[in-house]
Amino acid sequence: MNKLKDLSEEKQEILQEENEGYDTDYTYKSVCFIDGKPIVVNNLDFALGRFRNAINISGWSYLEIETKGEYDPGFQAYAAGYIEGVLTQRVLHLHIQNTVKDYCKGYQNYCKKLMIFLNENMQYVKKKIDSAAKDNPYWQAVKMAYMQLTGIWHGYSSSKFNPSIQYEAHFVMLLNSNGDFYDLESKLNKTKDPADDITGGRCSGLIKVAPNNADLFISQVTMSGFQNMLRMLKLYKFGVDSILYPGHTSTFAGYPGVIYSSDDFALTSTGLAVIETTVKVWNISLYEATKTQGQILCWVRAVVANLLSRTPREWCQIFKRYNSGTYNNQWGILDYKRFTPEKPLPDSGLFYVLEQMP
């Protein structure tokens, strides 16, 4: 007998919240065409997602999203995002409350400048996406990133399924831009909170070869405050052209509503492992090079580089384009295709380091 059957809606909600974070099974959702219209249901058609909230068991929740290849890449990205927004609505709501909801509280002057910066930059991105050829993989990948992000926002806010890009600084946009804010706060002269870590750093990484080249280890460690404790392991598998988008599948340690790792720790279908640790910019005059035009925020470039690159060198070449000088990091990109256990390491191509500054 269903224990919830005779409870009021209010009591059901309370009981469900008490069990939250202890899921033992996955919840499934998918997007299908019914009578020619896309709708979120429980039967596989062109996008499927499953979610498990086990934060109170393992410290993590788990999300997997897969799309089918017969649809436009941007449409796939939006549908993937929409399902994510629906499936993770509760934990995403809590993450928003913990992080960006009150981000501007007490910092109105800074946030006014920040919103102007973000909106001007988004208008630049919109212009480039709208004018790019449909066979241009770089700008189609940028479009996919913004479509997926918009889908998450629409699914989370229970909006109508409407494949499009919403160019505005909504909460999901702010979550994805959080790393970029580290440097925009300095550029736009945000008053510092004495409780903040003056180094701005929160992570470290390690790459180590086992004795006799028996194995090759890569690790990334993130340290942060309790506001970032709602962690999520994600798997995205897009049914896009594997030649144009070799990194069509990726898995990473991340956060609710965020479409790249942000720590970062990511593995892609091309055999790449990508990590980073943040670099503090002490010479603030360098921020004069950070502008709203001709540049793309770090979170977008990270998504695009993971999606388009086959090798560490390609990753670096793609990521450095349209450098914004925000979320400045030292990146480490390792190619497991170039490693064979107990064999000599290759002379080149195995591991690249990229350091970004404005």
TrEMBL record:
<keyword id="KW-0732">Signal</keyword>
<dbReference type="GO" id="GO:0009395">
    <property type="term" value="P:phospholipid catabolic process"/>
</dbReference>
<keyword id="KW-0378">Hydrolase</keyword>
<dbReference type="GO" id="GO:0005576">
    <property type="term" value="C:extracellular region"/>
</dbReference>
<dbReference type="GO" id="GO:0004620">
    <property type="term" value="F:phospholipase activity"/>
</dbReference>
<protein>
    <recommendedName>
        <fullName>Phospholipase B-like</fullName>
        <ecNumber>3.1.1.-</ecNumber>
    </recommendedName>
</protein>
<keyword id="KW-0325">Glycoprotein</keyword>
<dbReference type="InterPro" id="IPR007000">
    <property type="entry name" value="PLipase_B-like"/>
</dbReference>
<comment type="similarity">
    <text>Belongs to the phospholipase B-like family.</text>
</comment>
<keyword id="KW-0443">Lipid metabolism</keyword>
<comment type="function">
    <text>Putative phospholipase.</text>
</comment>
<keyword id="KW-0442">Lipid degradation</keyword>
<dbReference type="Pfam" id="PF04916">
    <property type="entry name" value="Phospholip_B"/>
</dbReference>
